[in-house]
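Record type: ASSEMBLY
Status: queued
Input:
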Amino acid sequence: AQSVAQPEDQVNVAEGNPLTVKCTYSVSGNPYLFWYVQYPNRGLQFLLKYITGDNLVKGSYGFEAEFNKSQTSFHLKKPSALVSDSALYFCAVRPFMDSNYQLIWGAGTKLIIKP
Amino acid sequence: SQTIHQWPATLVQPVGSPLSLECTVEGTSNPNLYWYRQAAGRGLQLLFYSVGIGQISSEVPQNLSASRPQDRQFILSSKKLLLSDSGFYLCAWSAAPTGSGANVLTFGAGSRLTVL
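Status: finished
Output:
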């Protein structure tokens, strides 16, 4: 079965330190990969996506993600965390040949940035 | 620019009562529309999606239903709510696929439903 794993339920980082939120996937073919962020009691917002090309993708709010095909990973990173980055982060994958264009979602990782 | 509206934002309903959540999209035509449920502030569960007026696909069997009476209107309904229907409901839209599956989802602000 196709799946997306976010192995960390919660990540704690001190403000100013680099952060990484992990995502691995198991789908057939070459998928499209996405990161979304959800602030408390709000809808999700798109951060970035990987389609093809450069493995390092830059997105909103200073976030970037690195696609690693051999490790089937798409980890979200930021060089210097801000308290305002505290939120719930979702990784999602769309299998390339999925005719319904549906997303497979990870369970989410809660990111807490401490001052 | 495109915007998505979802209401009501908060709803408290007794068990057995009906439900109607509404979602409308502005600034685009023929969007794909989605209803998700998020339980306990975590994982997302796709409930319904629609690629056109009157075309509804259900992902999970349940006592909820969806309708798309107009191109940019998507309604989530129930005739009789259960306790287990409590959760955070999110409407979303994406551009209709034109070969690429890389279209981004844009979400509404969500509707928090509490069934007592």
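Annotation: Chain A has a mean pLDDT of 92.
Annotation: The two ends of chain A are 41 Å apart (CA to CA).
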